[in-house]
Amino acid sequence: MDPIALHYDVSGTDFTCAGEASGKIKKALKELGFPTSITRNVAIAVYEGEINMVIHGGGGVIDAEITPECISITLTDQGPGIPDVSLAMQEGYSTAPDNVRQLGFGAGMGLPNIKKYTDEMVIETEVGKGTTIKLKVFVK
Amino acid sequence: MTVDKLQEILGLTYLCGEESAPQKQIDGCYCGDLLSWVMSRAEAGNIWLTVMGNINSIGVAVLADISCIILTENAALDDDARKRAEENEVVIFTTDKNAYTMAAEISKII
Ligand SMILES: Nc1ncnc2c1ncn2[C@@H]1O[C@H](COP(=O)(O)OP(=O)(O)OP(=O)(O)O)[C@@H](O)[C@H]1O
Ligand SMILES: [Mg+2]
């Protein structure tokens, strides 16, 4: 099959939409017949990236490329960037403001979750320019 | 065990999703209120005990394949969260019990 390409815009202000793109990607993978463990892993990773784009990145875009062997996701924002990636990758590190903590965010587990639930994770980020996160989940 | 059976045995009160309860298979239970922590540690099929009744909790439940949410200590379910839950066939219960008491009861039957 030819690779299937999906594209989603993520709002930078609307928390009630957050989870929409990851939900749609999960649904698409399910309909394509991927195993539930794969769809779940991808869904969790994309959700965390999507929420980060809303909370920290000012919104952005998500692109997915799906083949029978591999699901590749790219999340891109033009937000403030991440000054210290290895610090941001630590469990428990968070700069989430109080108002989003009250909603249950800010555990500092999002980026570690992405790592945990994907086979490849690459972060390209520049302070003042934005952040791109590339993920791959292989279908073994 | 399915979610409708759980409801019967524990006498839980539905907030939404009653129609899909017979199709939801339970496998274990998880307690927590920090969403990405739950995303990381909860397993597919878990019952999820939480006080977080906002729209983002529904996202977590859907994406992490949670079998049902029990809102403990009468925690409120937001209107937009209920709507999203209904759209996604998420089963939500309410209880006045706290997470400890509820989890202890659940552990006796699953
Ligand atoms: N897209 C992004 N743009 C700018 N900063 C980011 C971005 N994603 C993550 N960060 C930074 O990295 C930190 C850690 O991110 P991570 O997702 O692990 O935790 P969190 O979002 O703060 O909390 P949680 O995900 O547990 O709700 C964030 O607090 C933020 O400072
Ligand atoms: Mg995060």
Description:
The complex is a heterodimer of chains A (140) and B (110). Chain A has helices spanning 20-31, 36-55, 85-88, 98-101, 110-117; strands spanning 4-10, 60-66, 70-77, 120-126, 130-138. By secondary structure, chain A is of the alpha+beta class. Chain A has one domain (4-138): Heat Shock Protein 90 (2-Layer Sandwich), CATH 3.30.565.10. Chain A has a five-stranded antiparallel beta sheet, with helices on one face. In chain A, a hairpin with a 3-residue loop joins strand 4 (120-126) and strand 5 (130-138). In chain A, helix 1 packs antiparallel against helix 2. Chain B is α/β, with parallel strands linked by helices. Chain B has a single domain (3-109), classed as Udp-n-acetylmuramoylalanyl-d-glutamate--2,6- Diaminopimelate Ligase, Chain: A, domain 1, CATH 3.40.1390. Chain B is 40% helix and 16% strand. Chain B has helices at 3-10, 35-41, 55-63, 79-87, 99-109, and strands at residues 13-16, 29-31, 47-50, 68-71, 92-94. Chain B has a five-stranded mixed beta sheet with strand order 1-5-4-3-2. In chain B, helix 2 packs parallel to helix 3 and helix 3 (55-63) runs parallel beside helix 4 (79-87). The N and C termini of chain B lie close together (7 Å). The relative contact order of chain B is 0.23. The mean pLDDT of chain B is 97. Chains A and B meet through helix 1, helix 2 and helix 5 of A and helix 2 and helix 3 of B. Bound molecules: adenosine-5'-triphosphate and magnesium ion (MG). Residues 48, 51-52, 110 of chain A line the site of magnesium ion (MG).
